[in-house]
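ENTRY TYPE: protein
WANTED: fold as tokens:
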Amino acid sequence: MEDVTYTLEFEKPLRELEKQLITLNQVSQESKVDVSNEIEAIEKKIEKIKADIYSDLTAWQRVQLSRHPKRPYSLDYIDRIFTDFEELHGDRRFREDAAIIGGPAFIEGKPVMVIGQQKGRNTKENLLRNFGCPHPEGYRKAMRLMEMAEKFDMPVITLVDTPGAYPGIGAEERHVAEAIAVNIRNMSALKVPIITIVIGEGGSGGALGIAVADEVMIFENGYYSVISPEGCAAILWKDRAAAPMAAEALKFSPTHLEGFGVVDRVLPEPTGGAHRDYDAAADTMKTAILDSLKILEKKSLQQLLDDRYAKFRNLGQYADSAAS
């Protein structure tokens, strides 16, 4: 699934070498000239530059990777991890919202309810999916599916990938904040295990509306934040160009999030990002989900609910200081 046609600024040295490698391989095949030494030298250089670039990414660079247009989305993971997925539609109140997908499926023969936020690959798909920004009916659909999962004693798996809930007039008229608040309240008391994985962007209440879980995981090039770096920059610096500074200040990289207890586990990605190997990223997620289910299903219902409540009540770090 590798893609070398879309290049982030910090990846340009690597992409030039990859293009050279492609050219050398073509020359070798077409002219039957032995260039194996040159190919080997470039391959070694590529691996070194990969290690140099991706071992020390800034917060802003991780944000850019989380938004990579070739990054695997919810349906890509669902296709690789789950079987017999049956997508269900509509909130039974207003309409269907394609920015959130969901339905029952099986993982290693076990029935689960899978719910995910879905972006599009092109303009047509993005218009259909509303660029991954759910309307209130998307959250109400998600809650309907969670309540169905509770009825049939099925664990809930949610995949987060949104810049935020849709902020348009129609969404406000149909009470998007209330829909998210209801989800937060009801998920906190849902009587089945809940696992959330942030697979790309985890923006504000748009993410939290399906992320009140017993275990919250994040891929190492994802982010999970109360606001996007651009939004933070516009408020604090009055300039969206200050987004890289905002990304550092927000401390929302997976390492910080794990340290603060906001997420429970950071999932490694293939070198260069999940878009370079969909299957490897999916295998990592599947293993993590199965491991988590084994632990969560050993808990009694009361322990499950008590631990979930305590997890979110204890989030955050602060210090009191006496007024001088």
User: Anything to note?
Assistant: The chain has two domains: 9-56, 64-313. The chain is about 50% helix and 15% strand.
